[in-house]
Amino acid sequence: GCKAISQGSGATSVILRDGITRAPCVRLPSAAQAAEVALWVDTPENFLKLKAAFESTTSFGKLIEAQPTVAGKNVYIRLRCFAGDAMGMNMISKGSLAVIEALRLEFPNLSLLALSGNMCTDKKAAAVNWIEGRGKSVVIEATIPQDVVRVTLKTSVKAIVEVNVNKNLIGSAMAGVVGGFNAHAANNVTAVFLATGQDPAQNVESSNCMTLMEETADGDLWISCTMPSIEVGTVGGGTSLPAQAACLKAIGVKGGGINPGDNAKQLAHVVAAATMAGELSLMAALASNSLVAAHMAHNRKPASK
C-alpha cells in the first residue's frame, strides 16, 4: 500500500477539526431545572464564563465548545478542548472540574455525578464520535495509476472498487456498524499507537474510518479514508518511553512543536496515511483472492527439516 501510494500521487491529508472531549454528568432536582442549565450553557455569553474557568487551569488548553444534552434530571455537558501537542485527557479533566464549579455558582442545586458521563466518548464505540469527531478529524486521499494497481497491487481498478463497495460499504451497513466502513483500520491505528506511545485502548474510537474508492475518468484508482476521531499526542503518557520516543523522533514529531499542536497534528496525518496504505493492501489481496496464500507464505513458521 505504501509503495502504491508513493508510485502514484502521494497522500494528501487535511485536518478538519481538532479537539479532545470530556462530558461531565451533572444532576438537578428536576427535569425543568436540568433544561434550564442546558439553555444557560447554550447562551454565548454564559459559555464565555465557562471558557474562562476552564482556561484558568491550563497554559495551552482552550475550551472550544460546550454541548449540553438533557436526560430527565441529568445534563451531560460535552466539553471540547484544544490540547496543544498533548492527547489532552488529563488537561480537559482538570478543566472540566473548574467548569462544574463555575456552574455551581449559577445553579447551587447542581451536583456532579461523574466527571465522565460517557458522552465524551472515551474508549467505547459511539455514534457521537463518528458524527461530531473527537481528537483529530482527518480526511486523506490518493490517486493510484491503473498500471500501479495492476503491477504493484496485482489487481484491477474495477475489481478493487467493486470489493470496496460491497464489503466496506454494503457489508458494513448490513452489519449495522458505527464507524466501521473499512477493511481493517484498527490494525494500522493500533500499530502506530503502540510504536509511538499512544493509549492503545483509544484504538476503539480512533479506528473510526470510512474507506471510499472510485475509478477516475482516466481509469485510475482514487482512494480516501475519512477518520473523524484520531486521538494522539506527542507529549505525555507513553511518548517518553525510549523506543516510542525514538519512533516519534524518526517521524519528526517528538515532544512539543514550535507552534503548540503542530506535532500532534502531524502524527494524526501519519496515522491516517498508514491506515490508507493498509486499506489498499488488504483490499487488493481480497480483490485478487490472494489473502490466504499471502498469510500461508508469510505468517507461518517454516517447516522443520
Task: Kindly describe this structure.
- With 305 residues, the chain is of the alpha+beta class.
- It contains twelve helices and nine strands.
- Strands 1, 2, 3, 4, 5, 6, 7, 8 and 9 form a nine-stranded mixed beta sheet that branches.
- The longest helix has 26 residues, at 262-287.
Descriptive key words:
9 strands; alpha+beta; 9-stranded mixed sheet; 305 residues
**Structural class estimated from helices and strands:** alpha+beta
The pLDDT mean sits at: 95
Please state the overall shape, judged from the principal axes of the Cα atoms.
elongated
In percent, how much strand structure appears in the residues?
15-25%
Amino- and carboxy-terminal Cα gap: 34 Å
Please report the number of helical segments: 12
* Rg from Cα: 22 Å
Summarize the helix and strand pattern as letters: HEEHHEEHEHEHHEHHEEHHH
Largest sheet: 9 strands, mixed
Fraction of residues in H or I helices: 40-55%
The tally of strands reads 9
Outline the fold blueprint.
Layout: H1 2-7, E1 12-22, E2 25-27, H2 31-41, H3 44-55, E3 62-71, E4 74-82, H4 89-106, E5 111-114, H5 127-132, E6 135-144, H6 146-151, H7 157-175, E7 180-181, H8 185-196, H9 203-206, E8 209-215, E9 221-230, H10 242-251, H11 262-287, H12 291-298
Parallel strand pairs: 7-8
Antiparallel strand pairs: 1-4, 1-6, 2-4, 2-5, 3-4, 6-9, 8-9
Helix pairs in contact: 3-4, 7-11, 8-11
What's the quick description here?
This protein is 45% helix and 22% strand.
